[in-house]
Amino acid sequence: MNNETMNNETMNNETMNNATMNNGDAESLISNPRSPITNYQLLFIVGPTAVGKSSLAIELAERINGEIISADSRYLYRGMDIGTAKPSLADRARVPHHLIDVADPDHPWSLAEYVQACKQLINEINERKNLPLVVGGTGQYVRALLEGWSMPERAEDSSLRAELQVVADRDGVDALYEKLLNADPVSASKIDKRNVRRVIRALEVIAITGRPFSDQRKKSQPDFDYKIVGLTLPREKLYARIDARVDSMMTNGLVDEMRALLAKGYDWHLPALSAIGYKQIGMSLRGECDLDEAVRLIKHDTRRFVRQQYNWFRLNDPKIKWWDAEGVKVEEVVGWLDG
Q: Which residue among 14, 24, 320, 321 is buried most deeply as judged by most CB within 10 Å?
């Protein structure tokens, strides 16, 4: 069963009755490109980094009265523009964008905070009779919305978190991961051990609540109708785009951007500054590697990240309508959305 059929079958009667254009006509979006889509409440645009999600989203939003909600965890933070490849201010002026530059790097957002803010925006945009487009490659954000995740208890202990970070620094990532494996094998099986921040977070919640982290994340049906557009490319073409993007970041001043963040007093080890690009430039600035090696690591780690993204967004997922990023035409996507 394809995604369009699944969404149509799960639509409630009220939504079906309201599935008309604002003027009451049954015009298609192709003939009336400024009419909003009203037979579902949300559109996701997903895919790996550097594939072209933002460009497609802006063009679509212009055609269908859309507003873009970022689903990129790095876009949240102010002062992190070059290394995150944020949409330019000119692009953001073309259509409304949300959840970009909403926090300083030393005020990390939790998954629960993101989901809460996103759901509120979805409702507000729908009330304006516009279509929310959730756009990005942070798979955890997208899945939390699609699968109706209930978040673990709000449990924080900064001193415990610091102790766990010491374990990781002193004994290595494997030792930290072994603690999670012993405490909650289910969570350990779903968390990449190289993602130290997520391993620490799971252990922190377990220690404070006395319950497995995995038991505290439940799923339910989302309370909105949606469609999902996926963009993809053959791996070698995608890797070439990634390499070109990293080279452009370096030319556009990624090193200076990192220096500016440090000059504002932000710590090297902040979760935001552990993002790909900033982490490796930080290593170079601390003398742990030269700049050429930092650039090589950025490209290498971004490719590895792409492989992780395809675990979140699988090419055989029947809920996702996949398009080749090089051949996709906005009119074709609009026609599919309107079908």
A: 320
